[in-house]
Amino acid sequence: MEETGIVLETDGSTAKVKMMRSGGCEACSASGSCKAVSDSDNVITVANKIGATVGRHVIIEISSGVFLKATFLTYMLPVVMLFVGAALGGKYGPGIYSGMPADFWQATVGILFFGLAIVIIRVYDRILSRDKELMPVITKILD
Questions:
Q1: If you average pLDDT over residues 8-19, what whole number do you get?
Q2: Residues with Cβ < 8 Å from 96, sequence gap 6 or more?
Q3: Which structural domains are found in the chain, ordered by start?
Q4: How confident is the model at residue 13 (pLDDT cuts 50, 70, 90)?
């Protein structure tokens, strides 16, 4: 996957790049109100293997495998954990305390598992952010 951006600062082998809106943004019906690419949140750290300097427009490449894995982890893991928690809560919750209906246990344990998934994602993100092999890379200077 390729995106474009502007180099804001460099630090040895890495650079901070402000991402630009991609072509997919224009086709999206929510492009006018989308906060995914706001002015303050779209700065990422990338590997600067070609020596891009501050102010240059660059193309950044993100490995498809890494992108798909991150997308799955971010969107699917919480949903899967929610359903697993609801199933476990419905099955074992009434055995813990029969005074509460199974629906209560399904909702409670499902929400707890959803929260656990968020914690797992944050920990996994911090571990992976240190891995230089998974970092997006500047592949081309445009100007």
A1: 89
A2: 105
A3: 2-62+131-141 (2.40.50), 65-128 (no CATH)
A4: confident
Residue 110 tokens read as 């499902």
Cα diameter, the chain? 69
Spell out the SS3 assignment of 92-126.
HHHHHCCCCCHHHHHHHHHHHHHHHHHHHHHHHHH
Over the chain, what is the mean pLDDT? 84
The predicted model scores a pTM of 0.65
Quote the CA–CA distance of 109 and 83 in Å, as a whole number: 9
Query: Which pLDDT does position 40 carry in this prediction?
Result: 56
Amino acid at site 133: E
Residue 134 is classified by DSSP as G
The candidate with the shortest Cα–Cα distance to 49, out of 25, 81, 9, 13, is 13
The stretches of the chain forming alpha helices (DSSP H) are 23-27, 64-96, 102-128
CA 140 from chain centre, in angstroms, equals 24
Q: Return the closest-CA partner of residue 46 out of 88, 21, 9, 89.
A: 9
Are the C-beta atoms of 69 and 28 separated by less than 8 Å? Answer: no
